[in-house]
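Risk register update: the risk of archive-format incompatibility is retired. Evidence:
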Amino acid sequence: MKNYAAVDIGSNSFHLKIAAFSDGRISDALLDKRIVHRLAAKDQSGNTYIPEERIVRGIEIIGEFASDIAKYNAVYMGMATSAVRESVNGYDFLKRVKEVTGLTVEIISGYKEAELIYEGAMLFFSKEERDITVVDIGGGSTEIIKGRGTEYLYAESMPVGAVRCSQMFAPDFNYSEESIYKIGEYTREQLVHHFPVKERYKSSVVIGTSGTFNSLATLRTILTPAEIDITFELIRKTGALCSEYNEVSRRMSLTYIEKNKLEILPASIAIVKAIADYFAFAEFIYSPYAIREGMIQELIRKETTHG
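Archived output:
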């Protein structure tokens, strides 16, 4: 038995997952840690950067992850996505991470991110051999991947995420009808630009992963308990809930969702609604597996291939 770890530096939080691999299968998580830390900000010129205080806190978190990895004697992979990828001082941040913690974290492209997301999701749906589309709405970007069984065919990443859109249109997290409309329009513009041949991404099975769909999966048990999947009706009801609780102070009373997700929930729903409208997706199946599981799978494959 050997332990493997995935360090995922996202736009809204830092994640560490450690799992064992034995007898040809990955075990349930030995450790699954998520620490909320919104990394990037905008300067007065609109450039994305990581403020010093957030760098310091980020290094502290990754140092904690390094201790966990050492405790479990795990082989690890560290990857940073859109927040670090787009920050003018992203590489400097990762250099300091290496110097202080000893962990190497690499910036990955949106396409690589999409590939890992699909591979992770397929661990949860390994028996599916038909066409599958996976949608992952993160804090800074959205990845949409079309595949067949375990093989992915097309993938695209677009600069649309719940944190990004909040910073652009509702930086105080108080969402007016106008700001929700603008998020929807911005998302549609990006969809047209990045997915001009939308028929290519249509499938009989559509899977939703990561934060936005995790929130919707939680809300499903409250708003549409009779339904198994994330339906357009659930998206509509969640949008109505966000309209009613449009001020961030009021949304904090909805205690069944984490506070950092409540801050950006209206943006998340505006994005998923625009995606569902554009591709005519009627429903999504929620997968708890995504990029971190894909990273662990890639680690195992590399070790198996190279002995």
